[in-house]
Amino acid sequence: MLWETILLALREIRRSVLRSSLTILGIVIGVAAVITMVTLGKGATAKVTSDISKLGSNLLQVRPGQGFGRGGMRSTAVLFKMDDAAAIDREISGLAAVAPGASKGTQAIYGNQNWSTTVTGTTSAFLQTRDWTLDSGETFTTGDERAGRAVCILGSTVRDKLFGKQDPLGATIRLGKISFKVIGVLTSKGQSSFGTDQDDLVLTPLRAFQRRIAGNTDVSVIYVSARDGVSTEKVKQDIERLMRERRHITAGKEDDFNVRDMQEIVSTLTGTTRVLTALLGAVAAVSLLVGGIGIMNIMLVSVTERTREIGTRLAIGALEREVLMQFLVEAVVLSSFGGLVGITLGLAAASLGARVLSVPFIFDPTIVVIAFLFSAAVGVLFGYAPARKAARLDPIEALRYE
Amino acid sequence: MNKTNSTHTGNGPLIELKGVTKVYGTGLAAMRALQGVDLCIDPGEFLAVMGPSGSGKSTCMNILGCLDTPTSGTYLFEGIEVGNLSRDQRALLRRHYLGFVFQGYNLLNRTSALENVELPLIYRGTPARERGARALQALEAVGLKGWETHTPGELSGGQQQRVAIARAIVTGPVALFADEPTGNLDSARGREIMKLLTALNRERGITVVMVTHEPDMAAFAKRTIRFFDGLIDSEEQRGIA
Q1: Which ipTM did the prediction report?
Q2: Residues A119, A229: one domain?
């Protein structure tokens, strides 16, 4: 009987193709929007995760101030000194590299070209901790670092802006008011997933940066890279213990610094994209709801229009529940069909969007199934009232209806 | 419902109304459509129901067709008290024992004649193959062989009413209720329909109860009753023509 009812519903839908298509339009758009949003959202999350893991999953960052938490960072915390980095390097086992860092936005000038960039004072270990490689030239020598010589390594963007196609090696550029000799160029990393240019930087020995650019001896961040196979969690705990000791934090008091590994950063960022995806999905779900109301509207019109037909069916001997079933099935068939069309359109739009936004296209069968079930549920929910209206009709009145 | 056949003695009336009243509304606004109707219809009868509009004939037809229940009095269909049946039970009674023909045909639009005739069989749960065969037979019986695939829009009024009659008889009903079946047709088409109903009544023994305004059409029936002010005013028996 159910199969019969579905066939009957299909026949009914075929009888008025235009109206049926208009009826499901809302559902189609709603489902397509949900599918597109969620699929693209998943793609973006995947891209952020993979981008960050490219930075090295065994990387830790030690920064003064408290971590991301309620209330944000505490800005009054004492900055690190070079000794802190040295102490970490010396006293904690299982580390591959430790690099102190301090940065400042500075004008880089060569000839008549000038470019506003970020200068980071650090050591050659920085390259290892941040996964940088040299495109040409060489990194700082121990001598450069000890003496704080005025040498620098350019990011590829800065090289392009200042030198164009010329070879920058051996040239002297000005960073702020001081001249630095270019000894190397970094291999390009391209844009980060947040659209910032990772290649827009200049590296100098930390001492040179502190003395000639910053004018102090502060270190704002220490990059630590653990050796392969060493638990970053253990390294993190070791660093925390060491830094509490060095910064004289008594037991029971909160840290005035934070050690974060990439896992945390990844989860923070993917959390953000997930929230955005959920929000967009929710907006799309509202359009699905509107689509459902559209179905109800058309079904109500259809019931009124087919009053005589319903009267005939009742007179012939259709039971109340059979008429209810007929209209309910019709609504569900309509809305599920709309769901299928919407899923197809949504996946097509998502694959197109994924290409345009250069995020991976991730097909998620779960969301497809959910979208389909949801659209069918919309049919049941919004088809029920009209179906009940039809089933409750008085056959005598219905037969007399003009 | 299986009891029906056993309770029916064969000699007793198919339909028996005893003191049936029907009141619409309550209090001062109450409208007494039927004021105590007594009526017996034997199996195989062809009864014409006449009377001016508002006389109660339609109300009586609705009660006879189990579409409505009396306010008071009893209606026995093959010995079953219809007034005690639920809405769904009455629907099942109609499904298995009754056929309906309406003035406005009431066929499904944009649906072929064959599918229209199959409709009551669908509700009976007849398997698809048997359904098609029986619907074809019924269409043949009303003289519409070859018109199966036509939709109501492609058929004349007389043909549409034939499809409706085919739909009413496809289940092999005990009784057929026709509410002004010729009301929308010219007299020639009307007579054709009446001949068809007469043939069905004679050859298949289907009890026919028909409401009509036209004495010409009522003349086809063996018995005619006239309603006036909610009561049967007169009754006239005709010898078998």
Answers
A1: 0.90
A2: yes
